[in-house]
Amino acid sequence: MSDLPARRLLLVHAHPDDESINNGATMARYAAEGALVTLVTCTLGEEGEVIPPSLAHLAPDREDRLGPHRVRELAAAMIALGVTDHRFLGGPGRFRDSGMMGAEQNKRDNAFWNTDVDTAAPHLVEVIRETRPQVLVTYDPDGGYGHPDHIQAHRVAMRAAELAADPDYRPDLGPAHRIAKIYWNRVPRPVAEAAFARLHAEGSAFPAVAAIDDVPGVVDEDRITAQIDASPEHAARKSAAMAAHVTQVAVVGPFFALSNDLGQPIFTTEYYELAQGTPGAPAGERETDLFAGVTA
Ligand SMILES: [Zn+2]
Question: Where does the record place the region Disordered (predicted)?
């Protein structure tokens, strides 16, 4: 325990690629600063749609080999971000991508959405008690945009944070640890509007533009409590990490598209809402460091 870095950040995400799209700049910054950055990904993203035609054979309705392929994409993204501590919840393939809300795949036995929160949470409690993060980043209760695996990732992360702090809960998983601050991923609506206006004005390599509501976590500005501005180097690392998810993300300049081929801005400033813990900035001001106010 004593040889852990002084600052420790845990991120909980649903699928490979979510970490780079939401938090790539933040992860690159804290990894470069010597913090322990631990990413837990809950599924392999087996149900994703495949962008490059040359890899279409991996899709779940064909060879169903997308999961192992995305494990490698995620590993490449972690190299781009300089992050070395990455785990899959319960081990690779323990919980399967549930597909979009209402899909038949939601009901599969090992679908993440079809797993009891208290069945999945102990796997994360073990990671929390081992890495002892001061800061946890995950999604809001809607998962940012309603995807079942994102909602479930939120529930499991919040439950595991609670259980990890309880000394009476599963002492076999390590000594209790309370996470000081929990953040949800956000994008302020005015920032999203300005970025989409720029995309419309400049045009992009993509045939059409996504809607602001396609962006997860968009909220009114007054909900934002922290803002992490990427340096040019960390912004470049974020773009490279997103591009490493070749089957899921196409990156062209400051824009990207998912399998729907709709252009979206890459946000090089990342925004957060403090959901639990004490703000490290005076009232009305945004934190510029997720560890603000945290004592080692
Ligand atoms: Zn996702």
Answer: 277-296
Question: β-strand 181-188 against 218-219: which pairing, if any?
Answer: parallel
Tens-binned pLDDT, residue by residue, of the chain (296 aa): 568 999 999 999 999 999 999 999 999 999 999 999 999 999 999 999 999 999 999 999 999 999 999 999 999 999 999 999 999 999 999 999 999 999 999 999 999 999 999 999 999 999 999 999 999 999 999 999 899 999 999 999 999 999 999 999 999 999 999 999 999 999 999 999 999 999 999 998 999 999 999 999 999 999 999 999 999 999 999 999 999 999 999 999 999 999 999 999 999 999 999 999 999 999 999 999 999 999 76
Q: What gap in Å lies between CA 274 and CA 280, rounded to an integer?
A: 10
What is the whole-number distance in angstroms between the Cα of residue 285 and the centre of ligand 1? 30
CB 25 within 8 A of CB 230: yes
In the chain, how many H helices and how many E strands? 6, 12
* Distances, alpha carbon 12 to alpha carbons 37, 85, 224, in Å: 11, 12, 19
pTM for this model (two decimals) = 0.97
Between the two ends of the chain, the Cα-to-Cα distance in Å is 13
Q: From ligand 1's centre to the CA of 99, what distance in Å?
A: 10
| Cα–Cα nearest to 113, from 17, 43, 23, 31 | 43
Distance 14 CA to ligand 1 centre (A): 5
Q: How far is the CA of 147 from the centre of ligand 1 (A)?
A: 7
Give residue 18 CA to ligand 1 midpoint distance, Å.
5
Residue list for the binding site for Zn(2+)? 15, 18, 150
User: What is the 216 CA–ligand 1 centroid distance (Å)?
Assistant: 10
Residues 38 and 11: beta-carbon distance below 8 Å: yes
DSSP-assigned beta bridge partners for residue 12: 40
